[in-house]
Design brief:
The complex is a heterodimer of chains A (506) and B (370).
Chain A: H1 5-10, H2 22-29, E1 35-40, E2 49-54, H3 60-73, H4 81-87, E3 93-95, H5 99-106, E4 110-115, E5 122-126, H6 157-167, E6 173-180, E7 186-193, H7 199-210, H8 220-227, E8 239-241, H9 244-252, E9 256-260, E10 266-269, H10 281-284, H11 287-316, H12 324-334, H13 341-361, H14 364-384, H15 390-403, H16 409-447, E11 449-450, E12 453-454
Antiparallel strand pairs in A: 1-2, 2-4, 3-5, 4-5, 6-7, 7-9, 8-10, 9-10, 11-12
Helix pairs in contact in A: 11-15, 11-16, 13-14, 13-15, 13-16
Chain B: H1 11-20, H2 24-32, H3 40-63, H4 70-78, H5 80-112, H6 119-135, H7 138-153, H8 160-163, H9 179-193, H10 199-202, H11 209-237, H12 240-244, H13 249-255, H14 266-296, H15 300-315, H16 322-360
The chains are: A alpha+beta (506), B mainly alpha (370).
């Protein structure tokens, strides 16, 4: 069988034969037991009305109360599909354009209504049951903050768009929809602020998304990987978050957000390296505290990457760097350990990775117990068995703790990964290896781009105009401008009042 | 030049300053005191100011070349064949520049940290790192330069520790040397300032050409300030006689620094110095790639492999530490000829050509970029 052109554009490469007529389509659908067809006025001698739908996708209440009941009540008045459209009390009712359209809508929970004996035209009525099977709220468990709203996105895109519209209540918030996935036909929305977001970014996102050929879009993170500027990097090039406030902030700063149906994570871009270390709480706390916590977070990232490699480098090659008073406890704690420092470090790091991975896969209640068992029992036992030194145990536990301060999960994982090459380099060439690793890391980061924007901006290319909200967060008085590297169409966000406290204020 | 390949003019500050500083910053004090001794800072300052003049000349020359770089200039002045030959001569200088830098740093590593690490391992490690960075293009090199200027700057406050043992009388008596002594010191002051010649290749890659000139001067001024500061600390700390027998005065200075958690701060200096030399090596290798590409119409990647391979091949036989002194001498001689001989000559030539053309009333076909 040859595929006709319309269907091949609609479902790009489904890899199967696609039904060409409505009859064929219904024939295929009838193989499933959840496909229902009911015929009204069959015995009245009047032209029959046939309704076909997937019961598993539709709301039975809607079909019974609004569709079937209304058609039956006005049985005499109906002489065609237009009359049916008039009598049913549902707003989304349209004639099907072609067979692929009919197929798509049917799979999205529409009911197909046929009048008379001929197969076409078909009226499509939205009786979709979107709520079932989805959670209705999400308390941002994975990106928790003490202060601030705890509303998170859910799997239902309709609800997510609603949440977004509630926050940005102007018509300038534009939502564009496209369908991605030859088998899933997932609804994907691009959200941006018209007149602020640079059209270039929107165009890039639109173009890259519509070029996607994929079968089932399981999660927005798949889209993230497919549209990414560089797929051979451990670094996330787009920020993905379940927090509504974060996405809102990204959109009003001139970024583009992409929502996919079935995913509670929204991706925003272009993102920069520093974006991943910003927590919404930085803005909810006074700027002094916000800056302090942000600095702590960045230091903890550096600590998390470099602490274990430094231990390995110092104990393997450069022990003369340590003062005598520090060297003594180090030697004492290592005196019974039979392994070189690198094996000891890798062993402990992998133990921590095991705990983390097991904790993430287990149900949360067991996970807590596991943490205690792993952290205390295994830790103590390994030290007693002289498999590792006390001091390394402290360092590795601290680095693990430090790596979890990163607010975005994807970046936290990356940071956990990149310490391993550093440990190996430190074991091979000591401090020199760490510097070499630093060069490779920096060289890699400098090449990365997110939607064409350099990843390390505003640090490189150095942009002085945006330093008020980078490593530090300045007071709201100074955060009036959008980041210039996003090239927004309008730079000013708000104008603070000019009143200033004077020295002779009484 | 494509817009996406160019860098902002302010990055010339880090590119040029990063190219000037290197292993010479570790040893220049004990070299330049041969001659004017504790007055040698005058020579250093004079040479630094002289380099400002040279930067001016380079920009003048470049403004009158077709593509704004050395290759087009040579083609214009010497014709196709001879122009290529002169450019290849410059390629040799670039190789010498990179080899000297890598080999001197390997020597520091050998003497201070890893005495038994084979030369070939270190050569491969450093050249491979530099090649990886260069393969990212000039933007990556500019970013590396920025970081490699910013991070080692954090080391400067640690020079406070040696200043605690300063003998300010070391500077006295002031100005009791003859012109000959100052000249000898000036000769030795050349090598810390080498690096501005890469402007001859970098210039077409800079956005907003009129501003580029300002930043090149800033870069050189920055180098002067850094060298003078290190020199002052060194003179305050060392006796001149002691300094004569010290090979790496800057590293000896850093040995004085001590923290409760760190006994040997010189290790930080040594490893951080890889940051100091890396922009220099990257710019050199990048320059080599540029020259090969435009002279032999090679593609970028083979040109990079050839240049890196040549650097490694040249380093491997240089096993003896004695060769470093020869390299030092060779580089400062070649740099001296290039900067004090060739560039003023080019300047005069271009000036004369322009003057002559203007007089003859010929069409002004030179590209006025500035």
């Amino acid at each position: 069988m040859e595929r006709n052109e319309a269907s091949s554009t609609q479902s790009k490469n489904r890899g199967m034969d696609v039904p060409k007529t409505a009859l064929e389509l219904f024939g295929l659908a009838r193989k499933s037991t959840d496909f229902h067809q009911l015929t009204l006025f069959e015995d009245d001698g009047r032209p029959p009305v046939r309704i076909s739908y997937y019961q598993s996708l539709t709301d039975t209440e809607k079909i019974n109360r609004f569709l079937v009941a209304n058609i039956q009540k006005n049985g005499e008045a109906i002489t065609g599909l237009d009359d049916i459209k008039r009598v049913i009390a549902l707003d989304d009712a349209k004639a099907a354009e072609d067979v692929p359209d009919l197929e798509k809508k049917l799979m999205k929970g529409y009911a197909a209504v046929q009048y008379g004996s001929e197969a076409e035209p078909v009226l499509l009525v939205d009786v979709n049951n979107a709520e079932s099977g989805h959670r209705l709220y999400n308390e941002t468990e994975n990106e928790f903050s003490v202060v601030g709203p705890k509303v998170g996105f859910v799997e239902n895109i309709g609800l997510n768009l609603h949440l977004l519209r509630q926050q940005i209540a102007v018509p300038e918030l534009v939502l564009e929809e496209i369908a991605i996935g030859s088998l899933s036909n997932t609804k994907v929305a691009i959200a941006y602020l018209d007149g602020v977001t640079n059209p270039k970014h929107v165009q890039t996102v639109r173009q890259r998304l519509s070029a996607i050929d994929y079968d089932v879009v399981f999660d927005s993170s798949l889209l993230d990987q497919i549209v990414s500027d560089n797929s051979n990097t451990p670094f996330p090039l787009f920020l993905s978050t379940e927090r509504v406030d974060r996405v809102t902030y990204a959109i009003i700063s001139g970024q583009v957000a992409v929502l996919a149906d079935g995913s509670p994570y929204v991706i925003t871009g272009p993102s920069t390296f520093l974006d991943f270390f910003i927590s919404p709480e930085d803005y909810y706390l006074p700027w002094i505290l916000g800056s302090f916590f942000r600095v702590i977070r960045i230091i903890s990232v550096l600590f998390s990457i470099f602490a274990t490699p430094l231990y390995v480098a110092v104990l393997t090659y450069h022990f003369e760097v340590m003062p005598e008073i520090l060297l003594e406890p180090l030697i004492m704690s290592r005196s019974h350990v039979p392994f070189p420092p690198v094996m000891e470090a890798i062993f402990l790091e992998i133990t921590i990775e095991l705990l983390r991975e097991a904790g993430a896969r287990l149900p949360s209640k067991i996970g807590q117990t596991l943490g205690i068992v792993g952290g205390i029992v295994i830790g103590q036992a390994t030290v007693h068995a002289a498999l590792t030194s006390n001091i390394l145990l402290i360092i590795v536990a601290l680095t693990a703790l430090a790596s979890f301060t990163t607010p975005i999960f994807k970046m936290a994982n990356t940071i956990r990964l990149i310490r391993f090459p550093f440990i190996l380099l430190a074991a091979l060439w000591g401090g020199l290896g760490i510097v070499i690793g630093f060069f490779f890391l920096l060289g890699h980061l400098l090449r990365l781009k997110s939607l064409g924007t350099p990843y390390l901006v505003p640090l490189f290319p150095f942009r002085t105009g945006n330093l008020a909200d980078s490593v530090f967060r300045a007071s709201y008085r100074h955060l009036t401008d959008r980041s210039k590297f996003l090239k927004p169409l309008s730079v000013k966000r708000y104008r603070p009042s000019e009143e200033k406290e004077d020295i002779d204020h009484e | 030049m494509k817009e996406s390949l160019t860098v902002s003019p302010y990055l010339l500050w880090f590119l040029i300053h990063g190219t000037q500083t290197g292993t010479a910053t570790l040893i220049f004090q004990s070299r330049i005191i041969q001659g004017a001794e504790m007055d040698s800072w005058v020579s250093l300052l004079a040479v630094g100011l002289c380099f400002h003049l040279l930067i001016g000349m380079i920009f003048y020359v470049l403004r009158h070349s077709a593509d704004g770089d050395m290759m087009s200039l040579h083609r214009r002045l010497f014709g196709k064949g001879l122009g290529k030959a002169v450019t290849i001569g410059f390629y040799g200088y670039i190789l010498l520049f990179a080899v000297h830098e890598f080999r001197s740093y390997v020597e520091v590593i050998h003497v201070w940290v890893f005495p038994h690490m084979p030369l070939r391992v270190l050569s491969f490690l450093f050249v491979l790192t530099a090649s990886y960075l260069v393969s990212g293009g000039l933007r990556v090199i500019a970013g590396i330069s920025l970081v490699c200027v910013a991070l080692p700057t954090l080391l400067i406050p640690t020079l406070y520790f040696p200043l605690k043992y300063a003998h300010w009388s070391n500077f006295l008596p002031l100005f009791n040397h003859g012109a000959r002594d100052y000249l000898v010191s000036a000769g030795h002051s050349l090598s810390p300032f080498l690096g501005i010649e890469f402007l001859l290749l970098l210039y077409p890659f800079v956005k907003n050409k009129p501003q580029a000139r300002k930043w090149a001067h800033v870069a050189n001024a920055h180098s002067i300030v850094i060298y003078l500061f290190i020199l002052f600390v060194t003179f305050a700390f060392f006796n001149i006689r002691q300094l004569e027998h010290t090979i790496w005065p800057t590293l000896i200075l850093s040995k004085v620094i001590r923290f409760p958690f760190m006994e040997r701060f010189d290790y930080i200096y040594i490893f951080a110095w890889l940051l100091v030399i890396m922009p220099r090596c990257c710019v050199a290798i990048w320059g080599g790639v540029r020259v090969l590409r435009s002279t032999f119409a090679l593609r970028a990647r083979p040109a990079l492999w050839i240049t890196s391979g040549a650097v490694i091949a040249a380093m491997l036989p240089l096993k003896s530490p004695m060769t470093i002194e020869k390299l030092d001498f060779l580089l400062s001689a070649a740099g001296g000829i290039l900067l004090l001989g060739y560039i003023p000559l080019l300047f005069l030539w271009v000036f004369a050509v322009k003057h002559f053309k203007n007089k003859a009333g010929g069409g002004n076909e030179s590209l006025e970029n500035g």
